[in-house]
Amino acid sequence: MRRFLPDQFTLLLVATVVLASLLPVTGVAAGWFSVATKCAIALLFFLQGARLSRQVVIGGLLHWRLHLTILATTFGVFPLLGYGIAHLLPFDLPDGMMAGILFIAVLPSTVQSSIAFTSMAGGNVPAAICAATASNIIGMFATPLLIGILLSASGGGFSFDVLFEILLQLLLPFVVGQLLMPWIGDWVRSHKKILSPVDRGSILMVVYLAFSSAVAEGLWHQLSLTDLGELVIINAFMLAVVLTLTMFGSRALGFSRADEIAIVFCGSKKSLASGVPMAGAIFASQGVGAVVLPLMLFHQMQLMICAVIAQHYARTALEPQEA
């Protein structure tokens, strides 16, 4: 049953939401906290750029069929699925939460957990590293463009000026980190445990700021148990569809078992680490808390389900050897 329990970071996210609900930051303090949050996010992407080895990116380009399959799923199948849910299925969620569903659909893949599950299942780990990394780099451009298209098609408002803000806040620190990687990369990678609080702390700061604003706008008075139930159903439906497509689609395309595992875990997952900062930039004038809530639920669901699938892959790989 341990695999179904929330991980430590999820518990911290829940605690942050509770804290924001009881003691939200407002007024002048919220302004200063927003500045500190942007600085923390810039530091987060700077460290990500400094950690990434260029050899990994160059080597990953050689397996182009696998990477194109994952990118087509992440930025093609998922957005189409999100658009279909928003327009074809009879769900009546508040506008902010439906925007959150569309936002999930256009986010890049996760990095750490995709690689971890691929390794656990016995998949192609180098390909997973390259694919997840490429997904996050491309996502800095693709996510704001795709959410703009989906929101415009849904009758929502969106300004493409936010693309510049995202590039300034996220891509620029990442590029600077990459440029300095030859000098500081080894130190950053060797001090992962020391620097990990920057990763988690910056996300928690964004969540606290977002939900503080949402509480001030009356989020919990607008949200019902029916809305939460619909969010769980929609997230489960999206995850099930994409997991099925990536699993059987990779087999139909003739990929090896190791490549199939990488496609399943990199193609079906969405990044909370990239999504929360992007939400703050894209939906700055809207209720960010309502947008981030569906992503937090999806994050926990994908961890639980993918843990079960990874163990199944590992078990079925051992059975022929034992026989």
UniProtKB/TrEMBL annotation:
<keyword id="KW-1133">Transmembrane helix</keyword>
<dbReference type="InterPro" id="IPR038770">
    <property type="entry name" value="Na+/solute_symporter_sf"/>
</dbReference>
<dbReference type="InterPro" id="IPR016833">
    <property type="entry name" value="Put_Na-Bile_cotransptr"/>
</dbReference>
<protein>
    <recommendedName>
        <fullName>Bile acid:sodium symporter</fullName>
    </recommendedName>
</protein>
<feature type="transmembrane region" description="Helical">
    <location>
        <begin position="232"/>
        <end position="254"/>
    </location>
</feature>
<feature type="transmembrane region" description="Helical">
    <location>
        <begin position="275"/>
        <end position="298"/>
    </location>
</feature>
<dbReference type="GO" id="GO:0005886">
    <property type="term" value="C:plasma membrane"/>
</dbReference>
<keyword id="KW-0472">Membrane</keyword>
<feature type="transmembrane region" description="Helical">
    <location>
        <begin position="162"/>
        <end position="181"/>
    </location>
</feature>
<feature type="transmembrane region" description="Helical">
    <location>
        <begin position="97"/>
        <end position="117"/>
    </location>
</feature>
<feature type="transmembrane region" description="Helical">
    <location>
        <begin position="129"/>
        <end position="150"/>
    </location>
</feature>
<feature type="transmembrane region" description="Helical">
    <location>
        <begin position="68"/>
        <end position="91"/>
    </location>
</feature>
<keyword id="KW-0812">Transmembrane</keyword>
<feature type="transmembrane region" description="Helical">
    <location>
        <begin position="202"/>
        <end position="220"/>
    </location>
</feature>
<dbReference type="Pfam" id="PF13593">
    <property type="entry name" value="SBF_like"/>
</dbReference>
